[in-house]
Every structure is written in structure tokens, then in C-alpha cells.
Amino acid sequence: MRRSGLPLALLLLVLAAPVAHGQAACTVTAALDRSTAQLQPGQAAQFNLTVTDTSAFPARADVNLSAPSGGWQAQITPATSQVQASGNAVFAIAVVAPRTTTLPVLNLAIATRLTCQDPVLGNAIGGPATASNTLGLSLATSGTGQPGGGNPASLAASAESLGLLIILLAAAVIVAIALLLQKRGGVRLTATEPHRDMPPGGGASFPVLVHNRTDRAARVELHASDPPEGWRVLLPPSALELGPGEERTVQVVVRSPANAQPPTGAQVDVEARTQGEPARVARVTLRAFVVDPAAAAAQERPDVVVRDESRR
User: Are strands 247-255 and 203-212 parallel, antiparallel or unpaired?
Assistant: First the structure.
């Protein structure tokens, strides 16, 4: 029994040696990839914290964040991680900036705790090692209480955007004025009698005035929309040569089918288009109604909507 006692004591000393060594050797470092950042209101960003076990023992790393306030949000993933001896673990810190400037500046405290573990027994050895970091966050807005009234780069970008907006507004005004001046010229169609009555199988003539309102001669082509089935539209001539400021009246004839029953009708759109650059278009709407000749005087026609427009 005396011979076996000495080896047993030596074995206990060997097992206790790592414990005594670990009490003095558990060390840690923690580093952020960025220690400061300026975010836009409502912007989300991610930061990485690298925790390195600088001891000779595996360890468990725990990272905690101070509670954010003023509308700021912060979360770390994962909160705990195993770290090999002389190895490292990366923790992701997700931050969301507030949409208001209640708290434009936030210093987020980050506490790291490393607990070394016995590689054989797995129990904690020695005292934990700690490290601390601070993540400085701010909103990229003026009026944060710092000298200068905000970030110079942000102010320059805002001034550039304002200048571009002014240029675009000026261009829009110029285009609107040009379009307004163009509408004063071009061709114009006027229907002196935009609606006419006719018996079944009969026809009616619509006088349409074509006016060249430009200061140069123009060739004006006339087109009529397709009428309903059974109806016919006659539009002679199909083109006019008009001098500067000249007016001319054309007769547009609309005929109804013989089997048309009152109070049916037809709508015909007449279009005038000038040739050359810039081309201009004018339109007028004509309405024809089928009525009973014997009751024409007593029949009330529907309301007629006349559309006379000019556009480029």
C-alpha cells in the first residue's frame, strides 16, 4: 500500500497542474471591424466583433450589449460561442437607427467574458477573462448638437440634390411654355352643327371649318373614324392645301342604314393632321341621330358632347 500511494499522489499533482496553470493563463481580446458609424434615420447596419482566445485552453465566450435607448435597436448573434485554444469566434451585431432624432448619438457598450475550460474534464478552470468595446453610433442629420450643424458630406450631397431639383423644375417650366405656345398655332377644326337628325336610311351634312393657324402654308389631311355597322361616312376631300391663316369649310356626310330605328345614332370623330415638323393634330366629334320624321318636332334629342382639341 505504501508503494501505490506515491504514484497516486503524483497522478493528482499532474491533474491539478492544468488547473493551477489555467488560473493565470485565461486571456482574451475583442476587436470591432468598425468602432464608429453614422447612419441615416431608419437605416440598418451590421458590425462584426472578433473574440480571440489567447490562452492555451478552449473556452466559452459570452458577449452582452448594453440596452439601447432613444429608438435605437441592437442585437448580437450568437450571444454565446465555443472558442478553441488560440482560436477566435465572430459575433454579428445588427443595429437599426431610429427614424426620429430623439437620441441622435448612442454609445453602445459591448462586454466580452471568456471562461476557460479543462480540455479533459470540461469544467471551468481559473477566473474568467474579460474585454470591453464601445460602438459609437450617430444619425446623419443636422442639429445633432455637434459643431458645424451636421456631416459636411451629407450637407454637400443635399445641396447637390437641391441644385438638380431646381434644374429639373426650370426645364419643366420651359417645356410647358413651349407646349403652350405651340397650341396657339397648328390646325383647328370647328363643327358649326355638331349634331344632326335624319330619318332611317337618310343622311345629313355636317359643315366643318378647317383653319390653318400657322404663319406658313400647310397641307392638312382629313380622316374620319369608322362608323357603326350599316352607317356610312363621306369625307371629300381627304386633304387640303391651306395658306397661312386660311380657313376652308368641308362637308362631312353621314348616312344611316335603312333599317335603323329611332332613337339610334352614330358618333364620328373627324381628325385633321398637318404634314411636316412639327406635326399637329386636331379633332372634332359629330353626332347623327335617327328620328321618326312624323315625330321629329316632338322628340327630344340626347345631350351632345362636342370635343374640339388641338395637340402636338
Answer: antiparallel
HSE (side-chain half, CA atoms, 13 Å) at 5? 2
Copy the grid coordinates of residue 304: 351632345
Instruction: Tell me the fold of 187-311.
Output: Immunoglobulin-like (2.60.40)
Contacts of 48 (CB under 8 A, 6+ apart): 32, 33, 90, 91, 92, 93
Question: Identical fold at 23-139 and 187-311?
Answer: yes
Q: What does each C-alpha distance from 129 to 15, 22, 79, 247 come to in angstroms?
A: 22, 11, 16, 99
Mean pLDDT by 10 residues, the chain (312 residues): 49 45 70 93 94 90 92 92 90 92 88 88 82 92 45 62 88 78 71 89 91 88 91 88 91 91 89 74 90 62 42 42
Q: How far apart, in whole angstroms, are the C-alpha atoms of residue 176 and residue 170?
A: 10
CA pair distance 87, 52, nearest whole angstrom: 6
Q: Which residues contact 144 (CB under 8 A, 6 or more apart)?
A: 101, 104, 105, 138, 150
Q: How far is the C-alpha of 90 from the C-alpha of 85, rounded, in Å?
A: 15
Among candidate residues 30, 140, 62, 47, the one with its CA nearest the CA of residue 95: 47
Mark out the alpha helices in the chain (DSSP H runs). 2-25, 152-183
Cα 290 to Cα 122, 224, 281, 299: the distances in Å are: 103, 20, 30, 11
Domain layout of the chain by residue ranges: 23-139, 187-311
pTM of this prediction? 0.41
23-139: CATH, from 2.60.40.10, 2.40.50.90, 3.40.50.2300, 3.30.870.10: 2.60.40.10
